[in-house]
Design goal:
Length: 302
């Protein structure tokens, strides 16, 4: 399996009763996570205590923190990024509707307050044909620009030490890397890891069947590896650059995002649910937060 000890095999239950958890972030001693269909952002402490830190009527997704500690929240359906102040009040940080037509998705924020935001690119839940799309950069002042094009459902993202942005392209079955310039421009686009051939179809159902790995949420560790939530095979993978699989944890249920956290950065949190389809997840509360111990701690952003 490669360097480092394998992870503990059996994830344990932390909390349950959610609709669909996504975009977990470890910050200031707590795990912050979006619960899509209750339209809430929840912070969870090490003892399982929860606090609703924001309510986002247009559905929260990607989370990140500005250098001053304020929380940024993707508001999916109205194409906005919101900012939460110290008093818990929400305001608009950026409006992406001028450059993005599809539902917004995950986000990563760098140490200068620049945010990269993905979007679906097509009506996934409505059964539209699969279409590639863009990645958007939001600068610290709220200005918006297209950062990259032709991405196959840009989803989870990490920024590795040294300023390398890695984007999970779910429907292309790969992780794609860019170098971040001083001005925030992306260059040096390259495949960081490819999991089989990208499906050559615009039918979502066929694409899902053909994907060897469907990379969703991701996080990085101190050895430069990336943990990948595989959205169609009930597992998380620890992957090295080039695509080698160093470790695998089977969750026994769908896993759609992961995050290293805990006091020593060695707890891998898993956002789990039986499926991702909105019509299945919205009316029920079957989503869970799981956790498993690993050897190599967190590094990079988020």
């Amino acid at each position: 399996m490669g360097p480092g000890r394998p992870a503990t095999r059996q994830p344990t239950l932390v909390l349950e009763g959610f609709s669909y958890l996504e975009c977990p972030r470890w910050h200031d001693g707590r795990l912050w996570v979006s619960d899509f269909y209750t339209e809430k952002v929840v912070a969870i402490d090490g003892r399982g205590g929860t606090e609703v830190v924001a309510e986002v009527p247009q559905q929260p997704s990607g989370l990140g923190f500005l250098p001053d500690g304020r929380l940024l929240i993707v508001s999916m359906r109205d194409h906005r990024v919101l900012v939460r102040d110290e008093e818990g009040r929400l305001a608009e940080h950026a409006d992406l509707s001028g450059v993005v037509s599809g539902v917004l998705n995950d986000m990563v924020v760098d140490d200068r307050g620049r945010a990269w935001v993905g979007n679906f690119g097509f009506d996934l839940m409505g059964g539209a044909p699969l279409r590639y799309t863009t990645l958007t950069r939001v600068d610290a002042d709220g200005s918006v620009a297209v950062a990259a094009e032709d991405l196959g459902f840009p989803n989870g993202m990490v920024i590795l030490p040294g300023g390398v942005l890695v984007v999970a392209e779910t429907f292309a079955g790969r992780l794609t890397a860019f170098d971040i310039g001083e001005d925030g421009e992306l260059s040096g686009r390259r495949v960081w890891a490819q999991f089989g051939q990208p499906p050559q179809t615009d039918d979502v159902g066929e694409a899902v069947q053909r994907l060897e790995v469907a990379p969703d949420g991701i996080c990085a560790d101190a050895e430069g590896a990336i943990w990948v939530a595989d959205a169609v095979h009930n597992r998380v993978l620890r992957v090295q650059e080039g695509g080698g699989i160093l470790d695998q944890i089977d969750a026994g249920t769908g896993v759609f995002a992961c995050m290293l956290g805990g006091d020593d950065g060695r707890t891998l949190f898993l956002c789990a649910a039986p499926s991702f389809a909105e019509h299945e997840r919205r009316p029920v509360r079957e989503a869970q937060l799981l956790a498993v111990g690993v050897e190599v701690p967190h590094a990079g952003l988020p």
